Every structure is written in structure tokens, then in C-alpha cells.
């Protein structure tokens, strides 16, 4: 057999082996010997558990093993009631990266929420891997961002003399947060971000928001506020986060407008 023919046969065998890889749902993992999350990697298996920050299991989270050799060649599964998952990977010589997210509806809006993996490194399929995920609603992310979302503020189009660094927002939870917790009042000056002047790292929830001008020197002054370009100004507003890209992307924000 010629060398060219041998390469062609190998390529054909690779494609046949890879044909079993796709977006097929899988069963939850059986877990470790004590009923906890899996603790030993198995060849061509990715397994683990998904929980919230308090350690409670999250059911029906979507877990994805992304093939690092071919684009759009993922193995997809969902967690069971115990938060566990198990993905059977095709027996081919490639490496994999893991990610996970979940859908949750709050106050009439559906959100896609990313989950944080405990080990972001890739792994070889023949070694398998255990990767556990956690849902955080607030705090600093390893990549320098925030688990919470921004509340972005603009000045009224005719109020160019309002210094946005002097604007302070007070966000008071008007209902339990998306994770069911009571939440806490947030009082924070706006800061410059890639999204605009904003209060950062706000857990998803429904808030009553008020604003004031609070310069470093001088007495604070209450401001009027409204949803950006919408309705009349008032002393406060109560609203939830919008998801401008729907559930296609994990982007959520509240956008307001303030004036004297």
C-alpha cells in the first residue's frame, strides 16, 4: 500500500471515529464512592458536579466539552437533580476544554448564566478529566471581570455640566435576588468601565434605584432618574436587569439616565 493511500485510510478512520461526537445529551455521573462528586478521571470521560456558591446542586445545567482540533465539534450534556454530569468522549487523539452555563428566568426575563470551572486547563481525551462548576452571583472573576452585572448611568442629554464621577447610585433590593437570597443595599459612585460610567458587580435582581450628586467637596444633592430615554424622571425607579442579547450571550445590564 502506498504512503498516500495509508494517509487516506487513516483520515477516513478518524472521521468515522469522530462521527459519534455531537450534541448528544448524557446521563449524570454516578459520583465518587461516598456519593460526592467524581474524584477520579477515566479515559474518554469528562465528569463532575455543578453547584451554587453555597454548595447546593444545580440541575439541568448545560455542560460542554469543546474539541480543540475541529470547530463546532462539541459533546454536550446536562446535569441531573444531584448536579452531576458525565460526558462520554469519542476515542480520538484530541484535547478538550470544558465550559458550562444554565438558563434561569427571573421577573419575566430569561438569562443565560455562565458557570465557573474549578480547573480551566485543557486535557487529553485518553486521560479524561474531572471538572466541577460553581455559580457565583457576585465577586471578582479570575479573568479580572465581575460575576455581577453593571448598572450603567448617562446624564440627561442637556446636562453636560454634570460630572459623572460625582454621581452616586443607591440600589436597594426590591425582591429576593435571582439565587433566592435577600441581597444587600449597594451604595457606590459611578466608575468608568468599558460599558460606560457604571456601578459594577451588581447581583441579578430587582432594585429600587436612586441617585445623587456627591462631589468630594460640597454638599450632596439629590438627582432625578429614569430608564434611559424612557418615561418621566422621578426620585427613584424600580426595575430588573435587561438581557439585550436574549439567552444567546450572558450579558445583562440596567441602563439609567440622571439629571439635576
Q: What report would you give on this structure?
A:
It is a single chain. The chain has one helix at residues 3-18; strands spanning 45-52, 62-67, 74-78, 84-88, 95-106, 109-114, 116-117, 123-124, 129-130, 133-135, 149-155, 167-173, 186-189, 191-193, 196-202, 206-213, 221-227, 237-240, 254-259. The longest helix has 16 residues, at 3-18. Strands 11, 12, 13, 14, 15, 16, 17, 18 and 19 form a nine-stranded mixed β-sheet that branches. Strands 1, 4, 7, 9 and 10 form a five-stranded mixed β-sheet that branches. The protein is elongated, with a radius of gyration of 24 Å. It has two domains: 20-135, Immunoglobulin-like (Sandwich); 149-259, Immunoglobulin-like. Residues 1-37 have low confidence and may be disordered. It contains one helix and 19 strands. With 260 residues, the chain is mainly beta. A hairpin with a 2-residue loop joins strand 5 (95-106) and strand 6 (109-114).
Amino acid at each position: 500500500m502506498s504512503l498516500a493511500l495509508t494517509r487516506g485510510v487513516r483520515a477516513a478512520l478518524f472521521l468515522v471515529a469522530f462521527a459519534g461526537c455531537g450534541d448528544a445529551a448524557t446521563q449524570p455521573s454516578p459520583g465518587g464512592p461516598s456519593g460526592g462528586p467524581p474524584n477520579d478521571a477515566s479515559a474518554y470521560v469528562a465528569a463532575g458536579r455543578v453547584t451554587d456558591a453555597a454548595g447546593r446542586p444545580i440541575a439541568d445545567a448545560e455542560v460542554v466539552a469543546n474539541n480543540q482540533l475541529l470547530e463546532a465539534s462539541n459533546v454536550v450534556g446536562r446535569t441531573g437533580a444531584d448536579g452531576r454530569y458525565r460526558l462520554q468522549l469519542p476515542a480520538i487523539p484530541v484535547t478538550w476544554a470544558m465550559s458550562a452555563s444554565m438558563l434561569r428566568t427571573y421577573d419575566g426575563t430569561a438569562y443565560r448564566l455562565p458557570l465557573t470551572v474549578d480547573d480551566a486547563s485543557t486535557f487529553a481525551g485518553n486521560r479524561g478529566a474531572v471538572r466541577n462548576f460553581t455559580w457565583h452571583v457576585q465577586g471578582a472573576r479570575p479573568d479580572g471581570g465581575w460575576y455581577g452585572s453593571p448598572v450603567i448611568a448617562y446624564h440627561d442629554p442637556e446636562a453636560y455640566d454634570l460630572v459623572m464621577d460625582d454621581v452616586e447610585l443607591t440600589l436597594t433590593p426590591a425582591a429576593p435576588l435571582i439565587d433566592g437570597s435577600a441581597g444587600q443595599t449597594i451604595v457606590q459612585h459611578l466608575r468608568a468601565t468599558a460599558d460606560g460610567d457604571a456601578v459594577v458587580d451588581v447581583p441579578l435582581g430587582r432594585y429600587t434605584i436612586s441617585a445623587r450628586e456627591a462631589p468630594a467637596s460640597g454638599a450632596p444633592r439629590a438627582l432625578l432618574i429614569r430608564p434611559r430615554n424612557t418615561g418621566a424622571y422621578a426620585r427613584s425607579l424600580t426595575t430588573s436587569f435587561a438581557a439585550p442579547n436574549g439567552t444567546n450571550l450572558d450579558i445583562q445590564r440596567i441602563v439609567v439616565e440622571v439629571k439635576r
